[in-house]
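User: I'll paste a sequence; please echo it back and then give the predicted structure.

Assistant: Echoing your sequence first, then the prediction.
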Amino acid sequence: QLQLVESGGGLVQAGGSLRLSCAASGRTFSNYRMGWFRQAPGKEREFVAAINWSSENTYYADSVKGRFTISRVAAKHTVYLQMNSLKPEDTAVYYCAAVGSGDYYLPSNYNYWGQGTQVTVSS
């Protein structure tokens, strides 16, 4: 089993920044993908960003491209999501997901999920 624990959420004003962290523990994999998704009240879970662990290739939703950056530190088994120029519409619970295969933007293609961390952006 792989455990994922997110941290770094909070309340920030529009235009501000936050950095989310997702620490992985337990079973390790030699090559896998990790992603960030978010879910606002009354909406479906949506893709935010993903990174291939070995190649470090990254993928972003159009809505966050140029504002968010996903990265990882292999030695710490941790993936980060740096969020800049935050907007009220970025408000959601953010989830870390791991061991993805297939289309990177589909939640159903990930096997492990964290508990989520709330991000609230005030206008």
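The CA atoms of residues 32 and 53 lie 6 Å apart. The chain has a mean pLDDT of 93.
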